[in-house]
Amino acid sequence: MAEPQAIHLKDYLPPAYLVDDVALKFDLDDHATRVSARLKMRRHPQREAGLPLELFGTALRLTHIAIEGQPLDEDEYRLDAERLVIAKVPERFELTTEVIIDPAANTALEGLYRSSSMFCTQCEPEGFRRITYYPDRPDVMATFTTTVIGDRERLPVLLSNGNPTESGELPNGRHFVTWRDPFPKPSYLFALVAGALEKVEDHFTTVSGRQVTLQIWVERENLDKTEFAMGALKRAMKWDEEAYGREYDLDLFMIVAVNDFNMGAMENKGLNIFNSSAVLANPATTVDANFQRVEGIVAHEYFHNWSGNRVTCRDWFQLALKEGFTVFRDQSFSADVNSAPVKRIEDVSVLRTMQFAEDAGPTAHPVRPESFIEISNFYTLTVYEKGAEIVRMLRQLLGAERFRTGADLYFSRFDGQAVRVEDFVSSMSEAGDVDLTRFMRWYAQAGTPVLDVEGEYDAKAQVYRLKVRQHTPATPGQPAERKLPLHLPLRLGLLDAGGAAIPLWLDGESRGTDTVVELFEAEHEFRFERVPSAPVPSLLRGFSAPVKLRFPYDREQLALLVKYDEDGFNRWDAGQRLALAAIEEVMLALQAGAEPRLDPTLLDVFTHLLDTPSDDLAVLAEMLKLPSEAYIAGEQEAIDIDAIHQARRFVTRALGEALEPRFRALFEANQSEAPYAPSFEQIAQRSLRNVALGYLCATGGEKALHLAQHQFEQDRNMTDVRAALTLLAHSDAHQLGDPAVKAFGERWAHDPLVMDQWFAIQVTRPQPDVLDRVRFLMRHPAFSIKNPNKVRALIGAFANLNRVNFHRLDGEGYRLVADVVIELNRLNPDIAARIVTPLTRFQRLDAKRQSLMRAELERIRREPLSRNLFEVIEKALA
Ligand code: PHE
Ligand code: ZN
Questions:
Q1: 421-443 pLDDT, tens digit each
Q2: DSSP alpha helix (H) spans, 699-763
Q3: Closest residue by Cα to residue 118 from 228, 222, 269
Q4: Which structural domain range is residue 760 located in?
Q5: Ligand 2 centroid vs 323 CA: distance in angstroms?
Q6: Cα–Cα distance between 361 and 443 in angstroms, integer?
Q7: Are 22 and 111 members of one domain?
Q8: Number of C-beta neighbours around residue 202 at 10 A
Q9: Is 301 an active-site residue?
Q10: CB under 6 Å to ligand 1: residues?
């Protein structure tokens, strides 16, 4: 077999032929679904005449092909495993084909597949070619008419994009529905769903007064989990009208929940298909964080209707055009309807732990990649989250108003078109009247930029000089010396020794107490005047750019920022820096075999936080959380897995012991009798309460564990139950943990989404016996390797969140994950290539672990690999 080849952005050519209109007919059957297609095609006006027609197709059995009704002879076309090429076609023609596909055998979950009792599709990025022969690329946009035929009994509901136009009975107990989508769309937005589904329905009246019917389709047992998503959808529709002036354009908007899905959800025109984990929610089964995730994803997919569907991507290199912008939009929405500072803290945490790790690893790539082997591998944190940070910087640089003008311009100018990142940025540059030439480098340059900042105070002149240098470390294919300086906004302020904000004077101009300076060059110096005393700078407020900021803070300065900075985000960040320093100090002691101690400054700051009434409980809860092991690891030159784990535990326990009465009081003060609501006020309360319980349990005291047990038994809502169960299950107190785990598993055996949580809780146990538990649970009847949610809950959670055990020195953790990857490579290449990620992150580990991890990757490489896994493994072992 030939090695998979890379595709390059620089080789882009428009398609030789366009499709104006498509008529599809599906005759649904588990193993032999018949798909007939009629494509109205014409030559692309910018391409020369006489070019062959190239259509993509994978795993299709062609039974008929004709042009203008005239069946083709076998020598008139060429077929291989991926393509159908017709040497000669007219300028304008109608192509008809018929193929047979096997949805029941489709374990890759791309194209048409079975999930539980239903049929559904996933076409982004290149799944449509598993349905019919087609120029399956986003710059080919057509209107679609789709007729779905199925068994009336088994498949009473037949859905596709757009509006239903016709339906009726057919012989042999079959029936059909025809759907028409009037908006031209790329094939990746096509969708079909068929099954025994039930719906909840609601309505939304748009700004211009049009009534839109909203439907959420689920299996009957999930009808009691749809209310929250419906509310979220209406909030999102309203928000998009107000914040971006975007109105919905069809009369019907549908969401369907499916159990087997590779990603979170998909924005198919008028028919969003959701992983059930990203839409179903109710208080008994869903934790607060998942309510918020549902709200964010419902909004995200809805927002795509404009940023993605009405204006789409020219090619897949431009993926961040729709994803970065849409993530930014859903982040802004969630910030507006919840606690804005906490939303920012959460988003930055994800970026700094996971995206920074991607940037530092073997698959690092620019937000707009220059080449790929398998595009599915590029639905990454870099494209999504860093892509969103880029849009956020644009908003910071332009200001809210001009940013909105730029967005309006972009939507109106490119409506109905498939465009590039340049089109978005030039709309912003035009509306904002700013030069964004250098800014474009953010899309092209991989890696996390580092800002090295130094401050120098001249008491006599009352001048404070801030020197800022930036550089971006090397990434695969981009050596450090080729990295160029980036254009970025640095938001900052200065505090005096008492914590008061110092008025800012820059170049003779007053800037209040919070300002933004722009960097373009490798080095800048900012000279602040009229500074009465040596200041403490508060830098990168709100995380104004996705960079690593280095400043030689001492612990007292960090404590000052935690207590007094006017920027909530930086108060939190200073606390994280302080906690990190305290943990690192313990790591050093442990490595030297010395007695570790709890940093008194950290203790002082925690005491202050617990004793000072706070008006933002949600932020307080975040401030009381220590940085995760993954984040700590990301900050180390050389990663010592065990020292990180031990040191973090030590600091948690020491804080718990030193502040026990205060945590106890916090725990009790945040007991609420109100009926559960996923409101941010209540979420903050529960979060505080459970953070407190965590510190109490970390002391290992029996009293604390009984509090957890009591909370578990009270059974008020899943948030509190799960928090308590996790503490019990992760403690050494088997006599408490084991029965609780067992009871929970039996009670919820019927609910797959709760069982996912049950799996994750067990496989993240820090104790060394966990590996047997993972193996045991892989044979549990509720587990299936074919279901991505199960694989993530069991294997993903183990490999990513249970660092001490995944990285066991006997290599058993690595071996287990590699075995799963090898099996998934045959079943679901997309998930295989994602689940392997932790095995590729060996670069800063010790030699022993590096060689064990490499050996597992080599073992995987000896398999006949899918394109997805081939690309990741080659890059990791390069
Ligand atoms: N486009 C989807 C989103 O961002 C993600 C997705 C990609 C879903 C590929 C399925 C397959 O919401
Ligand atoms: Zn998206």
A1: 999 999 999 999 999 999 999 99
A2: 702-714, 718-730, 734-747, 752-763
A3: 222
A4: 748-878
A5: 5
A6: 18
A7: yes
A8: 16
A9: yes
A10: 122, 124, 262-263, 265-267, 300-301, 323, 379
